[in-house]
Amino acid sequence: MPAHRPFNPLTLAGQTLALSPATLQAWLRTDWTGEVYDDASLTGKGSYVMARPGVALVSICGAIGFGPYSWGLTYDHIEAAIAQPLHDLSVRHIVVRAEGPGGMVPGLLQSTARIRKLTAQRKVPITVHTTGQCCSAWAFLASTLACNGGQWVADPTAAVGNMGLYQVLAFTSKMLEDAGIQIVYVSAGAHKVDLFGELPPSSDALARLQSQIDELYGLLCADAGQGLALRRGISPAEATAMIRAQESRTYIGNQEAIDAGVIDRVAFLDTILDEAAASGGI
Length: 282
What we know:
Blueprint: E1 4-6, E2 16-19, H1 21-28, E3 35-37, E4 48-52, E5 55-61, H2 75-86, E6 93-99, E7 102-104, H3 108-121, E8 126-130, E9 133-135, H4 137-145, E10 152-154, E11 159-161, E12 166-167, H5 173-178, H6 203-232, H7 236-245, E13 250-252, H8 255-260, E14 265-266, H9 269-279
Parallel strand pairs: 5-6, 6-8, 8-10, 9-11, 10-14
Antiparallel strand pairs: 1-3, 2-7, 2-12, 4-5, 11-13
């Protein structure tokens, strides 16, 4: 069993997240006593099952962390879970059950790049299926995972989309002032203590952060657009524009989600598995 250490969700403050805000709020209100693993060895042999002849089913669930900020599931785990059935020559189609509220932005683009490299080496069709929730960072990732002739499919009751990001800032300067407490930082560099919570926020610093968030959002939309473009037979620019036009909305599994470019189809998991087995795969 890999080594573990305590994790406090408050350490996510200041991190850029593509995670359901409701999930983060719930965690911040929780007396967290869980454990989180320090390495990427959670995904070992048996990370998939042969759900149908020639069809590997990979189930991955949870919010996605990165490296030292991980709360269990990491991008490394997802890459390892996909790599294993790709190396099994009896696998002709992979179905990934993708379920989660999102995760951290650091590591996401690196992970999608690695997954593209993995899936290009052996072009096994990969279909992503969502029963409950696949939102935010998970939705960006699903757009890459569904490749080689596969699709992103959802149940009609699934929550999908919410393809955006944000950063949490908590300013306590007014509370401290009311309590008669003054915090003073002595620093080098004009912007070293920008947006420190104990100090009044600077409008210039907030504007710079907003510009950075907008830039990251553009990168994520363009990245996910590569997968959508291949699945829909449109240009990457058109696909990126479709994702941006969603304005980070959350959809259910219906025609509106298909038209918006979130999912490609609505169907239950058993139907997808049966079709994958019947198709013959690669």
